[in-house]
Amino acid sequence: MLDKLHQKALEAQENSYSPYSKFRVGSAIQFKGLSEIFTGCNIENASFGGTVCAERVAILKGISEHKKQTIESVVVVTDSPEGDPPCGLCLQTISEFSDADTKIHIANKNEILRTYTQKELLPISFKLEN
Ligand code: THU
């Protein structure tokens, strides 16, 4: 299943719209108990603050189609041979839909290089009581 997520993240990376940074990112996520895979690429904007990261595109697609879900795995792929972790804003978004088992996999084009729990990458996330 991780191979499939990696493949889907690579396919999404092909759609990256990143004319300003030239930094191409692809992501694929799977929610617990759902077989469907959701993908995203980074989508930049001339008004730079309008840029959306690949991971958040994938998560927002999934949540908007299936209501709140718990993320099982997130794969993020870039062109860097050593891979790149999600940014802080994406980690905060991932944390909103995570549990203790949620995994973040960092990949290059060939393979998944490192795997972390969400908590390892953002041990203390901002929360509001609801
Ligand atoms: N980017 C992502 O897609 N995900 C991240 O976690 C970090 C950054 C994108 C945003 C922007 O299009 C480019 O990478 C450079 O910051």
Provide a descriptive summary of the structure in words.
The structure is a single chain. With 130 residues, the protein is α+β, with helices and mostly antiparallel strands. The chain has one domain: Cytidine Deaminase, domain 2, CATH 3.40.140. It contains 4 helices and 5 strands, in the order αββαβαββα. The chain has helices spanning 2-13, 54-66, 88-96, 118-121, and strands at 26-31, 37-41, 71-77, 103-107, 112-117. Strand 3, helix 3 (88-96) and strand 4 (103-107) form a beta-alpha-beta unit. The longest helix has 13 residues, at 54-66. The radius of gyration is 14 Å and the shape is globular. Bound molecules: tetrahydrodeoxyuridine.
What is the secondary structure topology, with strand pairs?
Layout: H1 2-13, E1 26-31, E2 37-41, H2 54-66, E3 71-77, H3 88-96, E4 103-107, E5 112-117, H4 118-121
Parallel strand pairs: 3-4
Antiparallel strand pairs: 1-2, 1-3, 4-5
Bound molecules: tetrahydrodeoxyuridine (THU).
The site of tetrahydrodeoxyuridine (THU) has 13 residues, from helix 2.
